[in-house]
Amino acid sequence: MSNSRLIPDAELLRRMQGNNQQALLLLMKRYDKKILRYIYGKTRSTEASEEFVQDIFLSLWNNRAGIVIADSFEPYLFKAAKFKVIDHYSANTRAIVNARELIDEEETMVTVSPEDAVIESELNDWLMSEIEKMPGNMRDAFSLSRVDQLSVKEIANRLSLSEQTVKNNISIAIKRLYFRFQRIENPLLLLIAIMTLIS
User: Fold this and answer.
1) Which CATH architecture does the domain made up of 99-198 adopt?
2) 89-121 tens-digit pLDDT
3) Following DSSP, what letter does each residue of 8-59 receive, concatenated?
4) CATH annotation of 2-90
């Protein structure tokens, strides 16, 4: 079993496509804890996280014939995990827009319709309002990270804080905003807000 760590992901995929279930088990052993930690960090639900991880690997097995990876399974698995997180939150809304389509549109959209511009404006107003309510260091760290797109190191230097303190403040700020999502009446806005924070 110790040599299993040396087997490249591409080789495990080749074996899976040859109906080798042991290859799937090796892949799960390699990534399931990483994926579980990621999903739990977004949902704070042990039950949901474990269920989603099982669903991801089951889907991987069922769709193995059509899967193509360049080198590692990690990007594929984390993208699947991100979809699961979005589904987890969107299931509790009246949204009529599929979350996966929203992500595709966000990544490929060239022009912005008037409706999209209004939604983006509403989301920005909501985020700015909630950010302003945060304590000083938390507000500054989150704003510099998500609005100004600065790195943790750059934020730490600007605020004269340790990098770990900056990370903690950003993490707490994101959790704080998640708890306030239920205040948003517009379900489409809710989905976009979720994607903004987990990207």
Assistant:
1) Orthogonal Bundle (1.10)
2) 766 544 434 444 444 544 444 444 555 556 566
3) -HHHHHHHHHTT-HHHHHHHHHHHHHHHHHHHHHHH--HHHHHHHHHHHHHH
4) 1.10.1740.10
